[in-house]
Amino acid sequence: MRLQARQDYLKEAMSQFIDLENREVSVAALHDQELYELELERIFAKAWLMIGHETEIPDVGDYVVRLMGEDQVIVARAADGQVHVSLNVCPHRAMHVCLADSGNARVHKCIYHGWAFRPDGSFIGAPIEKEQMHGNIRTKAQLGLKKARVQLYGGLVFATWNHDGPSLDEWFGDMKFYYDMLFCRTDKGLEVLGPPQRLTIDANWKTAGEQSACDGFHTLTLHGSVIDIGAMGGEANTEHESAPAMYGINLSGNGHSLRCIAADTSWALAHGKGDLTPDQRLEAFPPPGITPELLPEVRRNMSAEQLHVLAKAPPVVGGMFPNMNILFIYSPLRDGTLGAALVLHSIMPKGPNHFEWTTYYFAEKGTPEHIKVMMRAAATHGTGTSGIIEQDDSDTWPHMTESAKGVIGRTETLKYQAILGENRPADWPDKAKVYEGFGKDDAQWEWWLAYHKLMTANA
């Protein structure tokens, strides 16, 4: 599609796919090849994407291969100790340079013609140096692997192809204030608990992406069995409307979102502890993954406003626009007790009808080994690819995508008309958009507005 034709198509498509006035999105947006190609260009080539954690590659030469949209990249620790992200495409004849998922290599050599590259992506040379098989037109400095812009945050590796775009802090905006409570709350930070799980789901990436923006309402029905066993806050019950975790504080900004649920509602009721001071709540019900030994570090690393939020209603689930799902939750173990699960899901498109669902498990560095074992078990049982929560979610997304393939089905719309409106508690920090009460569609619609903004930028 020529540039002007693409621009014309995009303007027309966005008006057809997203009804800003009525807060509706066409189901056809979940199965449109031309729209998908533009998403790769305008979202996945422009956004900051989380593609791993630095503890996956602790030593020089360590690397993992990940996706940024449909582009493979090499995430490597170079000799300078820094993390570099390079396109896994040999500039000679477009062969993938690195064929393994992970490993350690001081040199990455293309198997096709032997062009070799350092972990930082710089070009070393081709075989038989005297023959100069890399040619005389471009210098070696010009023949390195294409480099992404990289920034670490709380140990998470973020990358973007948009070298002139906003910084990661600007990308997060006010939401960084809340993300710090999850990723920057202790002295040493988080570490991964082994390699991530990867699964290809036969669905459009947006089905999972927009759900990550605080869709709490689906838990009443889709996760009804999880509520019934008492894993969503409160005792098991048959009146789903009474589930206390459905009430809380949703946050949104720049398409990012988090859902904050009061500690003395979601877990204190289940344990008969509902009348506590904020500091007592923080000690009695610390954020998932925080042991009593780590609480002094939390108090030291967080501001007074952040500690207030952690004690009143800590962030537990949500997402980072466009394609990351966050779950820092208490999750049931097989013996009926509660364990802590610190989980991130990455959603990478693999065509309009498929996406790669990558699941990372975390614990705070220095956590005793038996606690890490418990946390991985809780995360796997609750939120892993076969977990009791994700089995439910991953069943709906393919159905939604299948609906979009039908001639009549695609004429339907996704509706985001349950509006709570901004409603900031008097004692809540003046950060991001805040919606207190029963979780409705506000944050999810903000996700679509961020999508619309990126898709129409300079169109």
Brief synopsis:
This protein has 459 residues and is an alpha+beta fold. The protein has helices at residues 3-17, 33-44, 168-172, 176-183, 205-211, 224-228, 263-266, 268-271, 278-284, 295-301, 304-312, 369-383, 390-405, 442-456; strands spanning 18-19, 24-26, 49-53, 62-68, 71-77, 83-87, 102-104, 108-109, 116-117, 123-125, 149-153, 156-160, 190-192, 197-201, 247-253, 256-260, 315-320, 324-332, 338-349, 355-364, 413-415, 433-438. The chain folds into two domains: 49-161, Rieske Iron-sulfur Protein, CATH 2.102.10.10; 173-456, Naphthalene 1,2-dioxygenase Alpha Subunit, Chain A, domain 1, CATH 3.90.380.10.
Give me the secondary-structure topology.
Layout: H1 3-17, E1 18-19, E2 24-26, H2 33-44, E3 49-53, E4 62-68, E5 71-77, E6 83-87, E7 102-104, E8 108-109, E9 116-117, E10 123-125, E11 149-153, E12 156-160, H3 168-172, H4 176-183, E13 190-192, E14 197-201, H5 205-211, H6 224-228, E15 247-253, E16 256-260, H7 263-266, H8 268-271, H9 278-284, H10 295-301, H11 304-312, E17 315-320, E18 324-332, E19 338-349, E20 355-364, H12 369-383, H13 390-405, E21 413-415, E22 433-438, H14 442-456
Antiparallel strand pairs: 1-2, 2-21, 3-12, 4-5, 4-7, 5-6, 8-9, 9-10, 11-12, 13-20, 14-20, 15-16, 15-22, 16-17, 17-18, 18-19, 19-20
